[in-house]
Amino acid sequence: SDPIESGDYGQLNLSAGIEVDQFSIELSAHNLTDDDAITYASGFQSRGEVYRLRPRTIGLTVGYQF
Q1: pLDDT of residue 23
Q2: How many CB atoms within 10 Å of residue 6?
Q3: Percent composition of the chain: helix, strand, coil (DSSP 3-state, to 5)
């Protein structure tokens, strides 16, 4: 079965980082506005599937170069 049209959606992602000597740190945020949009919907009736945007995700990465 063909997919059902899900409409438009937007997503705001940000990341920032800094490196000092051998150390690095990065802060990132995905779906910062926590939009709950449907990205895909299957029209197959016995096994209808709906995919949504991943909820807001915030991460911190710390690194050290030897």
Answers
A1: 97
A2: 14
A3: 5, 50, 45
